[in-house]
Amino acid sequence: MATEKSDTNGADPSAPHMEVADGDEEPLPKGNEYMQAFARIRDAPFVYLASRPRLMQLATYGLLFALYNAYFIGCLVRYIKYDYLDWEWCDGFGFLVIITAIAYTGLAYYKVKLEKKNKRRQVDKSCPDFS
Question: Which among 42, 101, 109, 120 would be 20 to 30 A from 8, CA to CA?
Fold first, then answer.
């Protein structure tokens, strides 16, 4: 029994609604061109960011930073506008202020420490080794 190769790359010739994409083994359903274009447009940012992990990391951190600061500013505006009570440091907005201050102090310390470390490496590389 000799098997004939069809020009549809192994797709069932009795199924005219199926077409085979180049290089794929599985047939793809032929759909509406508008839906396929929509899917390509929808997937484009994810494909782009998946191929660039550093950009994805920066975008994620940037989004988290923006959302947290928007929440913090919203809480500050609400506290100033509606709450006329004394500061309660262990509840509500006071605790959010404490957590924010600790986080930003830690980030600033890390940035200063990282810059000192990079300067030390530059000095080490610029000094000749006479040993």
Answer: 42
Tell me the three state secondary structure of residue 30. Answer: coil
Question: Amino acid identity, residue 118?
Answer: N
Question: Under a CB-based contact definition with an 8 Å cutoff, are residues 29 and 22 in contact?
Answer: no
Helix (H, G, I), strand (E, B) or coil at 29: strand
Quick: pLDDT tens for 39-51: 889 999 888 888 8
**Can you give the residue ranges of every domain in the chain?**
29-84, 85-124
How many other C-beta atoms lie within 10 A of the C-beta of residue 29?
8
Q: What pLDDT score was predicted for residue 35? A: 83
Average pLDDT score over the chain: 76
pLDDT tens per residue across span 31-82: 677 888 888 899 998 888 888 889 888 989 999 999 999 999 998 888 888 8
Report the distance separating Cα 61 and Cα 107, nearest Å: 13
Q: Tokens 């199926």: give the residue.
A: 18
Written as one string, the DSSP assignment of 97-119 is HHHHHHHHHHHHHHHHHHHHHHH
Question: Is the pTM value of this prediction over 0.70?
Answer: no
